[in-house]
Amino acid sequence: MSTSPTHHQQQQQQHQTSPTHNQHTSPTHQQQQQQQQQQPTSPIHQQQQKQTSPTHNQPTSPTNSSTTTTTTTTNTNTLKTPTDLIKEKCESSLQQPDSIMSIEASSLMKEYITVGGRPQDVITFLSESYRGYAQMCNLLCYWLKIAGIPEEQIQTQFSNHLKEIIINKFDPKVADTIFTSSSTPPHWLDEMIVDSQWRSLIYQLSEEHKNCLMLNFIIQRISDSGYQNEIASLSTASTYYRVFNKVLFDSLADLVTLDEISFRQQLDEFKKSCCQHQHTYLYAQATIQNLIKNNPQKAYNLKRISQELEIEATKKNKIAQRISLMMSNISQYPLISSSITSLLMSNTTTTGDIIKLYNEYTKAQPPPVDFLRYPNLLELLLSDLFCPGKVIQSVHKSKWIYLVTYSVCINSSSSSNEKDNNVFKDITRAIEIVHNICQSNPLGSELQSVVGTLKDHLDFPIISMGIMQWIKHNLTDTTNLSSYNTLCVPIYLDFLRDICLRHPLHRSVVLNILVSHFEVEAQDLESLAILEMRKNVIDNIVYLFSCGYVIPVLDTIESWAPKIDPSLTRYFINQVLDIIEPPYSQSFMDKMKSIIKIINPFGESTKLEPSVQSFLDQCKNQLILNNNNNNNNNNLSTKTSTKRNNTEIYNNEDENEQVF
Description:
about 650 residues
């Protein structure tokens, strides 16, 4: 053994000397050691021994001792060369659990051997650190498959669990460090973007870590790859102008062409994206207003989108209502501007404001009718006219009726003519008749006697909206529910079914009324009466389902299922299965299976009714058939579809530039 330059290291070597080394020590030296051990030593002598240098066994001063210690530390650090440090780093990395599974394993092995490491040590490190967690997961999935669990369910559970682990363990600082350490994006990034499950995980992570550079960069890459519709509702989509601009244009171009049901399904994500921040809301509204002026053929659809955004933003801050008014040219009409602003901001009507509006709209050159068509303003006027208990002075009642009639009869693109005047008179008369009936709020036999009169005027959409205001008031009034089994409620529900047939666009309002009636707390009713009442509501919801209002109804039942009596959910499922037959759409199958899973979470077939089990089997067979057809189509036309999709993307971008 080589002699250490310091006494400290010599002591370490003496303590670490093996028994074999002790055998080669001379006898004389052993005797001296024994004598030293036998002789008692004073504390002073022990301190001197600790301060004795390895060469001269003489005491040293405290100053010399501290100098020796400093020199020892310096010499120890200078012994580790950069090669040694790299070698230690590689050894530490190779000894991490399952290091052989790391993407850096091959580079670490090469680097370790390059700096002088032995290949045998590499094999030892990798084999001893191997745990095989990934292989354990594969083996567990194989066992589940043998146990009879469907492979699709196994893969879904496995991916969901893997997502949970990544979400819990994800560190944005580490991710940003890895991302910024390289001049080029990671090679695995493109593979993640193509896979829908990885994209879904990235969306979840970006919602939780909004300031992560790597995730924000990936969101931009996803948008550039043509998946901007998927990120429409992400908060990170509004962080970058280019991403948000593309999402806004594509969403608007899609929304103006959709039917009512599809429109409502996609509207929520669009509202969430545009209302993330004040600047995104202002930009979206300004863009829509510009489009309304330049695209009159799509003006009504765009106005609807603008109004929906306004309603959503107003929930967060009422100032959004005032901003929307400022974006219009209502400031050119100061009298109606102050009145409409006051009505909308206070959410209540005043006789003074109504008189001002009436005076302006009865002039020879009235303001544009669009200012009367704000949804919140119309709802206030209808509530005053048709909800029982609202008192309007008889002298001014005609002014309310005139404003409502004017808002629905006048064509904003042309002046009124004689035919419009006839319609104006018919609607005015209908509103007066229905207003008197609703304000009197007849019950029992009196209600039966006016059913025919009300239905005679039900073809007018504005009368339909007014009657629904009256029905909602009565169905949500707990004082009326104490006598639930009388004639009133069945008549109200019959009106709602009639409205579903006559006015398809009112089905969403009908569903909201049924939901409010279902969820009302009736204190005076017994449990069985409440159960019967809710079953009656579900019958009417199923009727709404049969009219074609499918997905919104299923969404409602899915939200109810965990909270309501399971017998009501089973009743709905059985009622629906009685009126449907295959083939089914994928969205319908997913919703129905989700509802069934809520009441049967473990998928036990013994607890399912035959009709439900038959439906699940039909869904399974249809899914297999669809997958086979898709695989065949993909094998035949992969290249063709890729070229066509690329062409469509470029064409859409050109169209957006021309339109916007």
